[in-house]
Amino acid sequence: MLEQLKEAVAVKAEDFDQEKVDAINNDLSKVEKEIDSIERANEFLAKKTNINGELKQEAPEFWNTLETFFRTGENGTSENRRGTMRYIELPPLETRADQLGRTTANKGGYLVPSLLGDYIDAARAFIGGMVTPGLLDWQRVGTGNTLTFAKYDDTSTKAAVVAEAGSLATGTDITLGTATLTFYKIATSFLAVSNELLQDSVYDVAGEVIGLLMERMYRGLNYYFTLGTGSSMPYGINSACTTVGEYCLARSLTRTDLVNTIYSVNRAYRSNATWMMNDDTVRAIRALDVGSADARPVWSMSMQAGEPDKLEGHPIVVNNEIETFQPFANIAWFGDFKNFKVREVATGMTIRRVDELYAETDEVGFNIMGRWAGNLVSGGTPIKLLRCAST
Predict the structure, then answer these.
(1) Which of 48, 65, 118, 151 is most buried when burial is the number of CB atoms within 10 A of its CB?
(2) Residue 169, in any domain of the structure
């Protein structure tokens, strides 16, 4: 009987198909990544824990107070409870004029300054694109005054041989340029929440509101740092990084187009270089082979959780604000994005609560605002683009 069972489950060598096994393993890897992404997104939207699931244990009083504020406004939050808002060095809650109903709960508009950094990072990771953590030179500054950076390109100047007792050649002066970062206020539209929902203790109101507003904010920031013109808005890569590294056909591209784009960037920037493109462009690239004699894909799937897939050895960031295939479209950027600087006023984002604006429908409005500046700051050309030709 045992021998019969062994024969029944034995796999014959001639029936073993390594390609099918590899394909199944690749599919499993994709599913595992999708599950991990969904789980992280659900944690982010739950909002009572940070991305590592630690916040409930670290600051329960802060969250209880924030929940109370969302439900009842400042006047429903005791002085002692408001003090816990400074658990992470928050300033006192700020109110508008007394005549807006300071003696009645759920009246007037209030600010809760400085959101938790864990949510900022979680939202940034969730949205991706130009707000991907670690991609840009993203820092906080004390004020929103315009910042000016000096830049120069001295890469074409080199030393020369001097004859004995000979005179030195005429020197070449450094040509300095400047790049400015001007700050702009960016805010979400109001998110209206019914008082019935605010009064229902079953729901995590604070977490849901913060989660939705953070997603709106980072979608907006990704839009401006991608497509911003620098006129009445921050600069985006579409206007700050305009040097073409390679042209491809308007409806398709080849591996040669990708390689030429890589080598159009000076090797000083290539070691830390990243691709950025639309999801449709990613789909087209994943269908490419190295060549007819070698069917390996140019795409390299990451085998480690949390690490990005790679294209010709360089990580890829998906940004759906970037154009897809059409004549003259800028379909991809490649280079060292650390040279794109984003500065955020140190007060960070603030949540504002407004009651009377939605009084007619018995709702309360919430929004987020902050101030940011962005621009490419480099004397060279650290980022180049792949552009579609006319046909």
Answers:
(1) 65
(2) no
Looking at the structure, tell me whether residues 113 and 259 fall in a common domain: no
Among 282, 266, 343, which residue's Cα sits nearest to residue 317? 282
Q: Which residues pair with 150 in a beta bridge?
A: 178
Q: Could you give the CA distance from residue 386 to residue 252 in angstroms, rounded to a whole number? A: 12
Is the Cβ–Cβ distance between 136 and 338 less than 8 Å?
Answer: yes
Are residues 118 and 253 both part of a single domain? no
Residue 203 confidence class, pLDDT cut points 50, 70, 90? low
DSSP per-residue string spanning 118-155: HHHHHHHHHH-GGG-TTTSEEEEESS-PPEEEEEE--T
Whole-prediction pTM? 0.70
Task: Say whether pLDDT at 361 is over 70.
Answer: yes
Token pair for residue 245? 């590294």
- The answer to whether residue 24 is domain-embedded is no
* Gap between the Cα atoms of 207 and 40, Å rounded: 15
Query: Do residues 290 and 201 share a domain?
Result: no
The tally of CA atoms less than 13 A away on the side-chain side of residue 209 is 28
Domain total of the chain:
2
Query: Is the pLDDT confidence value at 287 over 90?
Result: no
**CB–CB of 377/150 below 8 Å?**
no
Q: What number of residues does the chain have?
A: 391
CB 371 within 8 A of CB 344: yes
- Domain carrying residue 199: 43-131+183-231+345-376
- Residues 51/44, Cβ–Cβ less than 8 Å: yes
Quick one: 312 and 351 in the same domain? no
Cα separation, 207 vs 202, whole angstroms = 12
